[in-house]
Amino acid sequence: MLYPRSSESRKMQYLDGMWDFRADDSPSRDAGFKESWQNQPLFKTGPVIPMAVPSSYNDITADKNIRDFVGWAWYDTEFFISKDWANRRIVLRFDSAHYYSIVYVNGQQAMTHVGGHLPFETEINNFINVNQPNLLTLALNNTLSPTTLPPGTISYKNDTSKYPEGYFVQNLQMDFFNYAGIHRHVRIYSTPKTYIDDITVTPDINFNRNLGILNYEILTVGGTPGKLLVELLDREGSVVVSETGNKGFLSVSSPHLWWPYTMNLQDPGYLYTMKVTLQGNDSDVYRLPVGIRTVNVTTDQFLINHKPFYCHGVDKHEDADIRGKGLDYALIARDFSMLKWLGVNCFRTSHYPYAEEILDQADQQGIVIIDESPGVGIKSNNLGNESLNHHLEVMLEMYQRDKNRPGVCMWSVANEPESDIDEAVPYFKSVIDYTRKLDPTRPVSFTCSHDYNSDKVVPFVDVIMINRYYGWYSDTGHPEVIQLHVNSDFKEWRKLYNKPLLVSEFGAGTVSGLHAEPSSAYTEDYQVDVLSQYHQAFDESIGKFLVGELIWNFADFMTAQGSNRVNGNKKGILTRQRQPKPAAHLVRARYHSMFNAT
Ligand code: GCB
Fold first, then answer.
1. Is 423 part of the annotated catalytic residue set?
2. Residue 552 Cβ < 6 Å to ligand 1
3. Looking at ligand 1, which residue's alpha carbon is closest to its atom 4?
4. Most buried residue among 233, 370, 434, 463 by CB atoms closer than 10 A?
5. What is the overall mean pLDDT for the chain?
6. 418 in contact with ligand 1, CB cutoff 6 A
7. CA distance linking residue 442 with residue 462, whole number of Å
8. DSSP assignment of 125-184, as one string?
9. Residue 480 burial (C-beta neighbours within 10 Å; 0-12, 13-18, 19+)
10. Can you give the pLDDT at residue 242?
């Protein structure tokens, strides 16, 4: 699936803005379907409130029922189709909506989608009127079940002597708030009826001959396809090389390689534009940003363009006040500015694929991405065929969305699954094998919370990623044990596996403004102590087999309420408002000192 872009042949209209909204809290929880709310504007069937799109709906109002709502939420809006689109292919695209979507156009079901973090689209020519307003309705359900990704469960409390009638709770298997809503753009766009449907680009480099190679394959749909012209433009817009046909390669001499910014401070994230023209009476033109770079893994190194790359990074979340997981350009700009301020050269999209606009920035700014699926918290009861098939589908959707991004340098299929049980082996072997088959050019992994001697899935990964909380979940209050633990842990993994190791989480809960000397858990001083101990431990293994460190977390973020969470998870080195805690200065000094050092 191609990201929608305007061109001389493609027009785009955003449907973002204020939509009408109603959470279906009827006793049966399905009044919307019984009464067919999609058949008329929502405001005609009951009360509505204005709802921002994109945004999560949970934190927009002061209504606890909306914040904690579980079930079907309904949205609608109206749109017009411009007359000059009448003879074009018209596509409706949701960049993401969490979790299960049923989309209606003028009361007719146009598409459904399962999953909260990936785009879905369909042609709507058969549903629309050109001379009238069109009604777009979304029924959206955020219920997590044992077969969703992430999985969850609902428990009903039927003892009416202790709980009010109809009381139930959603149990999450992940440590972040289950924000729901239309989280990213909604748009309609038009293309010619014969159009470019998909482009796959695989970069390679011939180092001996100083050649960049972009292997490409283009799919077209409709009519008799005309000639395909493929041109590669440099940053100045000059054509560097061109080819024709739907499959082939572009060869670039003395190429500008795509480098992580810390490996090339002058010219990081170099992107060419691949301009594809499907010639004909009604030509279609699509411009795809592409980068020339390779990724390889040896027994102890992570190589980008054949040079060792050390990931000094963070884990993130899509999370902010008010908008929850809603796309927000100001927030994206602030986050990338703070990533640069920190000297971060890599982040993991913990624990789901992030917005395409975020990945655009990573591509452009030379930030390496570990692209993670929403497979977070998979336990023994989530390993059945239905779960597996859905997981494979999600990997396919992720691959299709992100395959051409030079910033994406590794796939993470899951976070902290119950990978120490036998049943996990066939499940994760299938997911990892499938991902590797889809994309043989990028390493595949998952983050492991188990020990070297109990995990059963690590044998299948390319890079071992481990999440560790020494001095926090174990030996709380004792940062002095961290170095010993990390070193002995590393030693054991290395004895068993000849694979590079990356610490994909470590950190400590830190309430901004809280201090103690000597430091104690939750103070800012303790976070500094904990991170410094990890840093000293890591330094012994950098350049040997350790290929990266990702701090949990870039910023504080919201979680479900719990006795060990203080209005959310406070392991950020930045506050939720993206202001530094003292540990951020420690990290900044460390990461800046690593520039060009790898
Ligand atoms: C983890 C999880 C992450 C949590 C973190 C924590 O291991 O991967 O989702 O938020 O620990 O703070 O407990």
1. no
2. yes
3. 175
4. 370
5. 97
6. no
7. 9
8. GGG--SSS-EEEEEEEE----TTSSS-EEEEE---TTTS-TT-EEEEESSSS----EE-S
9. exposed
10. 98
Q: What is the pLDDT of residue 340?
A: 97
Choosing from 416, 418, 524, 549, which is the catalytic residue? 416
- Contact between 128 and 89 under an 8 Å Cβ cutoff? The reply is no
Nearest Cα neighbor of 306 from 296, 315, 298, 316 is: 296
pLDDT, tens digit, for every residue of 218-258? 999 987 767 999 999 999 999 999 999 999 999 999 999 99
H/E segment holding residue 362: helix 356-365
Residue 372 CB less than 6 A away from ligand 1: no
pLDDT in tens, 163-212: 998 899 999 999 999 999 999 999 999 999 999 999 999 999 999 999 99
CA distance 176 to 557: 7
Ligand 1, atom 10: closest residue by C-alpha: 175
Residue ranges of the chain with pLDDT lower than 50?
597-598
Q: Which of 352, 321, 351, 348 is nearest to 334 (CA)?
A: 321
Pocket test for ligand 1, best of 172, 174, 175, 350 (most atoms within 8 A of CB): 175
Supply the pLDDT for residue 225.
Answer: 66
Residue 598 pLDDT:
44
pTM of the model: 0.98
In 162-301, alpha helices (H): none
Distance 470 CA to ligand 1 centre (A): 13
Q: Give the integer Cα–Cα distance in Å for 301 and 298.
A: 5
Q: Is the dihedral of CA 8, 13, 16, 22 positive or negative?
A: negative
